[in-house]
Design a protein that fits this description.
The protein is built from 35 helices and 26 strands. The protein is α+β, with helices and mostly antiparallel strands. Strands 10, 11, 14, 15, 16, 17, 18, 19 and 20 form a nine-stranded mixed beta sheet that branches. Strands 8-26-25-24-9-21-23-22 form an eight-stranded mixed beta sheet, with helices on both faces.
């Protein structure tokens, strides 16, 4: 039921409760049985063993397991079951599963944070007595007392309010406390932020006191609905996960088709079926890059460390690369783009804007600081944010409230009242008395008969009054919250009835315009986003005018932009929303459900969406987005729990740094995957061509596993540590429609794979023809094995740049140089140390044979340099100019 559209008396009658007595214990027990405890439900994690086996739900892993089984079966059929090959495959698959399980995010951390956000105890009316009880024992129908500092324990239909204000920014995104009014009745379709007769679970009382009827508890509250959204929302796969899965499927299917073709060719050539079966298994092993998933995981883990040094903590490993693909950043306003602290940004005498440090401005701020209930404690200003803004400005001038109050002692006050919209304090200095009043300009100006101008008190004419109100309207158009300040000299201390008339015949002093200001670094970060082809979008629960003003000031919005509101979104069909997002930069007055709809609409249009936020209301959208970024300092635990990345400095600019790191990591991953796949294609071609030519199989399964898992892995990881290209933020991001590789890359992979395959076949032929020792094909296989391994180590240097590697510092990546030397040492050891050579079924090479291997292994540098020159040289030269300029 929409309780905000019903009167307080109707709500009491519907809940069958008396305003003066509340529920009795028997009623409370029955309602607890009906509605459950006032707590957030959690979703149980799957058992550890289930989560472990889910790691095997990958096409490439299934093909590998199938190959391991076939490998053992083939050996068993020949009477010589060999465990080495299948055990190595099983070890790699198990290692990948363990890595995936370790990196998996704890599924329901956000819900645990939601449970902890509620206050453990509350004051409730039960059986005519005010009792303090655990929040989880509150049931619908309970009457709850509220005071300044309380956390609201359930969704309440307010019954009485005395100057009550609630801070709801974590739920609605609105930075200023909301003034509550129990007597109000609002429209059915009003947003949460406009329901001024309601107090919501998890919000805090910043001012005044009141009493409310619990109309929703637990999962039925607005916070509970957010918890439901988090449980229902499934985090999407990252672009890299999707592309690697696609690549794995393509490779797996290609391996099976090639194996079937090879097997058929072998049978046609009358080669024994079992021999062809073993050869087909070898080819399957060659086609699958066994170390690919583990290497990408390691590279992402390296990226986690690099991002942590730039104040971005990665909670979910694939998030590292997703930022590099981001095309849209949907940012919450309050606390993310702004400071979540009200500041006085403009002071006026009513007809012109004053310098903030002018004597008149300081006098206006002094008056506002005296008529003020905020206090300074431990270096922090505590109190209503609007009042705290005066104290903060005062401190900025080197003054303090205590010193002012010593000079002008506070003797009496007329507290703020939502009907009067004014607050007045009485002060004494020596034998002089002064009343200071601050409040809504349209109300205060009608209580004034004079105004203060350049040290003189002047009569306030109707024309001057209208001029002041026009100036107030202009300030409000700039989304400023405007307060007026006035004063009155008194002959004596007013008492009793005199206080009721004290807010008359006032002297208007000036206006203070406040706002939650943007963070200083945000404008530059937004400009960098646009330069990088990333579209920044503001999504907030705040008022449209405020949101637009902030958006324009930081460069997200343009002068003619309009804000789309939550009410608009509620009326949009999915297609209409998808059309609206294409030309909208600001979404205002939106609920958590609307934020999720906006994120999903962008995703449906093919965008990779990053969502930033700090409040409870941001959590569902953070989880739904491709990448969720929570603020680490001012962010709620709920937002952190739902996010993929936590920014430790709450700095929007850190997101841009993280995007840069993400792009660098993604580029390096592409280099590594390019290297690995070209190597795998080389292995396939080596075996495939040998079979077509009727040669013996030049490489055994164990050779292929060694190359794929050891000599390929070291340079691939080293490529992940390659320095980020200069100017990487000058181009547009990769979209979700783009493959892991650009259009020309598959062509290069097959050309380079063919090169490696041909070099290995040449080595095999040379070994069999010129270095045969009478041991069949062992010498040829040894030379092919060595050439395949070392040529791939050398080929890794070609990956460092799409243009000539001689135009960059070739040995700048010391990790890659180290991988080259370590890889060569390992390869030589495998061939030269007899016990190891026996396991690999190879034999030591003579110096002349090693010389042939060395010459063949160095050829990839020369061949690929020619390839780079021939394939679109203009594009490569243009890219090099961009890098040189950066």
């Amino acid at each position: 039921m929409n309780w905000h559209s019903k009167s307080a008396e109707f709500a009491l009658a519907q809940n069958r409760v008396d305003r003066n007595d509340g529920l009795d214990e028997h009623q409370a027990v029955r309602r607890r049985q009906e509605h459950g405890r006032n707590m957030i439900e959690t979703k149980r994690d799957a058992p550890l063993i289930i989560r472990f086996f889910k790691q095997f739900n990958d096409f490439m892993v299934i093909v590998l397991l199938f190959a391991a089984g076939l490998s053992y079966f083939a050996g068993w059929m020949q009477g010589e079951p060999r465990l080495t090959d299948p055990l190595i495959i099983l070890f790699i698959v198990a290692l990948n599963a363990v890595l995936g399980l370790v990196q998996e995010s704890k599924a329901q951390k956000a819900l645990a944070a939601l449970k902890e956000i509620s206050q453990p105890e509350a004051k409730v009316l039960r059986g005519g007595q005010a009792v303090v009880m655990r929040v989880e024992d509150i049931v619908p129908g309970d009457i709850v007392f509220l005071e300044t500092g309380d956390i609201v324990p359930a969704d309440l239909r307010l019954l009485t309010t005395i100057n009550l204000k609630a801070e709801e920014s974590a739920l609605t995104g609105e930075s200023a406390p909301v003034e509550k009014d129990a007597e109000a009745v609002v429209n059915d379709n009003s947003s949460i932020g406009d329901r001024i007769n309601m107090a919501f679970s998890g919000s805090s009382i910043t001012y005044g006191r009141g009493m409310g009827l619990a109309v929703a508890t637990g999962m039925a509250t607005e916070m509970g609905k957010i918890a439901s959204l988090i449980m229902e929302e499934k985090a999407p796969e990252t672009p890299l996960q999707r592309k690697l899965a696609e690549t794995g499927k393509v490779l797996g299917i290609a391996a099976l088709l090639i194996c079937a073709a090879i097997f058929a060719i072998g049978i046609w050539r009358q080669i024994p079926a079992m021999e062809m079966f073993i050869t087909s298994v070898s080819l399957a092993v060659a086609a699958i890059p066994e170390g690919l998933v583990a290497i990408v995981t390691i590279m992402l883990a390296i990226g986690v460390q690099r991002m942590a040094r730039r104040n971005a903590i990665i909670r979910k490993l694939p998030a590292v690369e997703t930022l590099g693909s981001a095309t849209v950043i949907c940012s919450d306003k309050t606390g993310t783009l702004t400071q979540n602290k009200m500041r006085i940004v403009e002071v006026s005498n009513g007809h012109s804007t004053l310098r903030k440090d002018s004597p008149v401005s300081i006098d206006i701020i002094k008056l506002g600081a005296l008529c003020n209930d905020s206090i300074v404690s431990g270096g922090q200003v505590l109190g209503d944010p609007t009042e705290a803004a005066f104290i903060t400005s005062l401190l900025g001038f080197g003054l303090d409230k205590q010193g002012l109050e010593t000079e002008k002692r506070r003797l009496a006050e007329v507290p703020f009242d939502s009907k009067r919209k004014l607050m007045t304090t009485i002060h004494a200095s020596d034998e002089e008395y002064m009343a200071i009043t601050k409040g809504a300009p349209d109300v205060l100006i009608n209580r004034c008969t004079h105004y203060y101008d350049n040290g003189q008190v002047m009569a306030l004419s109707s024309q001057r009054r209208d001029e002041i109100l026009r100036h107030v309207a202009k300030m409000a158009d700039r989304a400023l919250r405007v307060l007026a300040v006035a004063f009155r000299q008194l002959n004596h201390l007013p008492t009793g009835p005199e206080l009721a008339d004290i807010e008359q015949k006032l002297i208007f002093a000036g206006l203070a315009g406040m706002m939650d200001p943007p963070r200083p670094e945000v404008r530059g970060a937004v400009a960098t986003c646009k330069q990088a082809g990333i579209r920044p979008v503001m999504i907030t629960g705040d008022h449209p005018a405020t949101a637009l003003a902030v958006a324009r000031s930081i460069g997200i919005g343009e002068r003619d932009d309009i804000a789309v509101t939550g009410a608009d979104i509620a009326g949009f069909s999915p297609d209409e929303l998808e059309n609206a997002i294409e030309h909208t930069a600001v979404f205002a007055r939106v609920s958590p459900e609307h934020k999720v709809r906006i994120v999903k609409a962008f995703q449906k249009k093919g965008h990779i969406v990053a969502m930033t936020g700090d409040g409870v209301n941001d959590a569902p959208a953070l989880k739904a987005a491709d990448i969720g970024c929570a603020m680490g300092i001012n962010g709620t635990e709920v937002a952190k729990g739902a996010a993929d990345i936590v920014l430790t400095d709450d700095n929007f600019a850190t997101i841009v740094h993280a995007v840069e790191e993400g792009r660098g990591i993604l580029t390096n991953i592409r280099k590594a995957v390019h290297f690995l796949l070209s190597s795998n294609v080389g292995e396939i071609i080596t075996i495939f061509v040998a079979i077509l030519l009727g040669w013996p199989v030049p490489l055994l399964a164990i050779h292929l596993l060694w190359v794929n898992l050891v000599t390929d892995s070291l340079p691939a990881i080293a490529l992940g540590l390659d320095p980020t290209d200069p100017g990487i933020m000058n181009g547009r991001p990769r979209t979700s429609r783009t493959g892991l590789f650009h259009r020309k890359l598959w062509q290069r992979i097959f050309l380079e794979g063919g090169m490696i395959g041909m070099l290995s076949l040449i080595a095999f032929g040379v070994g069999v023809t010129y270095f045969d020792t009478g041991d069949g094909v062992t010498m040829g296989r040894t030379m092919a094995f060595a050439t395949l391994s070392i040529s791939q180590l050398v080929h890794a240097f070609n990956m460092r740049s799409e243009s000539s590697i001689f135009r960059i510092r070739l040995f700048e990546n010391r990790y890659l140089v180290g991988a080259l030397f370590v890889g060569i040492i390992l390869q030589v050891s495998v061939i030269s140390i007899a016990p190891i050579a026996n396991v690999f079924r190879v034999m030591p090479l003579a110096a002349e044979a090693w010389l042939v291997v060395a010459l063949l292994s160095l050829l990839p540098i020369i061949i690929v340099e020619i390839e780079k020159f021939l394939i679109n040289p203009r594009q490569l030269r243009q890219k090099q100019k961009t890098i040189d300029a950066a």
